[in-house]
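re: ur question from earlier - yeah i can do the single chain one, its not a big deal. heres the input i used so u can compare w yours
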Amino acid sequence: MEDRKQNRLMIDVNTRKRIEDKPTSLGNDELFSRFMEGDNVAFMEFFDRHTSRLGKYCRKMVGNEREAEDVLQDMWEKVLRRREERTPIPPNPVGILYWLARNLCLNRIRDRKEHASLDDLSEGMHPAAEQNAPSQMEELVLIALERLPLSQREPLILNAYSGYSFEEIAEMMEESVGTIRTRAWRGRRQLKRLLTALIELDENSEREASE
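and the output i got, formated as tokens:
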């Protein structure tokens, strides 16, 4: 099963070289439309354009590198399945990616809460046990992000970490640009407050431990 999933996302060297040598200026809608019609080169350009940015979104949402990679793999599997099942081409393909990634992330978070607390998880599942362990500040940012309302957390992550513009995020979420900007601004303000409180709490704990 794992080999099948990996093979379906692989591309031969010549096809990859054509993409690198001659990237297109096609929009997301046209690339996705061509992919749905059987153009694998269009799919790989669409894949390359969004997989890294959505990977960052998933990592910030679930707070775990391996889980984020699983979510991203599942998301692309669902996209590939749409072509196999001849699903009608959506009017907003990047929005479809976002909603797939979002729902998969929320499912992971929900399952985690239902089955175990952080203390119950094995050491290998802790964020600090990842190969590239986050710094102390990065851990505090993750903690603070988790405390933001989802409506503020998502546009902030998509803009600040994934690099999507407010216009792109608005299209994904089918909201106005002004609404997305307001949510992100409120999220930044609340994140700053939370970080200040967490840093102060952390410093006080270190001070008490040294006394």
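The CA atoms of residues 52 and 162 lie 8 Å apart. not sure if urs matches, ping me
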